[in-house]
Design goal:
This protein is α/β, with parallel strands linked by helices. It has helices spanning 70-78, 82-110, 130-136, 138-152, 184-189, and strands at residues 11-18, 24-30, 41-47, 53-55, 60-61, 111-117, 155-159. The protein has 2 domains: 35-159, no CATH class; 160-190, no CATH class. The protein has a 5-stranded mixed β-sheet, covered by helices on one side. It has a two-stranded antiparallel sheet with strand order 1-2.
């Protein structure tokens, strides 16, 4: 059962925890965790609803694969089978967590600088996009990148995305006009 080879670590605390389905887990904290070496690349991450995250390298994190459980969940909910509903919700959560862990670990291992837009999911939760935003798991993506970068010695930066698509990439100007911002063709030609 010791898949992490705990003999390599100085164990700090151990706590037994029971989840909502009645499964027991041992939560072990260690004093020092071996550092992961980060890569030498640089990458920007765009958070979205269709794809939870897209890197500037072209890698995509698609958490929509959890939608395959929607029909089974609906059947269990209509049948009022609470035990099955909890099990399906746990499966969705674990699948989403696994996808995010794999995506963020890959980014940290191959990059030295990771830049993510400072976007808050709370600003979207009162709109029609609420379910998609919650499914995307933006907060979890940023949380994992933050602690994994700190452990590996990478640079993790959150930047304000305001006006980034309206600013000329060459000269940095943002020209106002009565009709709004200039079109993409005009912005790129400056």
């Amino acid at each position: 059962w010791d898949s992490y080879n705990l003999a390599l670590y100085n164990i700090n605390t151990c706590e037994l925890v029971q989840d909502s389905r009645g499964n027991w887990y041992a939560c072990i904290t260690v004093k020092e965790y071996p550092k992961i070496a980060c890569g030498s690349g640089k990458v920007g991450i765009d958070l979205g609803c269709k794809d939870a995250a897209v890197s500037s390298d072209g890698d995509k994190l698609q958490t929509k694969t959890t939608h395959q459980y929607a029909e089974k969940l609906a059947i269990a909910q209509r049948a009022n089978n609470k035990k099955r509903v909890k099990a399906i919700h746990a499966k969705i959560k674990n699948t989403r967590q696994d996808l995010i862990h794999k995506f963020t670990s890959k980014l940290v291992k191959s990059n030295n600088l990771i830049v993510v837009g400072k976007i808050k999911s709370k600003s979207f939760t009162s709109s029609k996009l609420a379910k998609s935003v919650y499914d995307a798991g933006w907060f979890e993506i940023k949380r994992q990148l933050d602690y994994k970068c700190a452990n590996a010695g990478c640079h993790y930066i959150e930047v304000n995305e305001a006006y980034t698509t309206q600013t000329c990439s060459c000269c940095g100007s943002r020209q106002d006009s009565p009709k709004g911002r200039e079109g993409l063709g005009v912005r790129g030609a400056t």
